[in-house]
Amino acid sequence: MEFSPAHMENLVNLLRPPEPEVLQGDDLPSAGFDISSTRGKIPSAGDAKTPKTIEEYEEQEAKEAETLGMTGAGLGGLKTPEYTMNYQQSVSAEDVYLQIGPKTPGSASCENLIVRVKMPGDKKENVDLIVDTSNITVTSSQYFLKLPLPHEVNPDRSKANWDGDTETLVLTLKLDRELDFVNF
């Protein structure tokens, strides 16, 4: 028996598994509302032009950073508060007068990171603080600050105080660094 091309096509169609019935586009029942997505679309920021040179790119990045700094990273027009970070050592008489201890003036010998966040015009009751091992987030009625930390901290051994005279939040963050036992 000879097989012609038509016979071969019929045999292929016979052996092919049946496709499941799938509703496509217009076959779907109407839900009465439109579904849209912004996934994959980058929101336009004012003058959404693509930079052509490195200088234009750097200028655009600087403008975006300045805008984010003024509005508290875009959270409802909240301002970014001024802040300072300082290291703190626990020193004893041996360290200061006798210089017997292993402490050095370097930050590797520090136990605490002191972060002062100035929030003029705000009250202690309005401040919401979140501290995790690698950053802090301060939110209030006027300010927003999400600050990555230079070293990991132990949130359970850290503390926060409000200085009402200067309207400043003072965080004493206990550093949690690898090999700290060698430095102390």
Task: Report what the structure shows.
By secondary structure, this protein is α+β, with helices and mostly antiparallel strands. It has two domains: 50-75; 81-183, Immunoglobulin-like (Sandwich). It is 21% helix and 26% strand. It is built from four helices and seven strands; from the N terminus they run ααβαββββββα. The strands form two sheets. The chain has a four-stranded antiparallel sheet, with no helix packed on it. Strands 3-4-5 form a three-stranded antiparallel sheet, with no helix packed on it. Strand 4 (135-139) and strand 5 form a beta hairpin. The N and C termini lie far apart (93 Å). Mean pLDDT is 76; it is low at 42-47.
Which segments are poorly predicted (pLDDT under 50) over 5 or more consecutive residues? 42-47
Provide the CATH architecture of the largest domain.
Sandwich
Number of strands: 7
Instruction: Please provide the ordered H/E string of secondary-structure elements.
Output: HHEHEEEEEEH
The level of helicity is 10-25%
Relevant terms:
Immunoglobulin-like, elongated, 184 residues, single chain, alpha+beta, 4-stranded antiparallel sheet, 4 helices
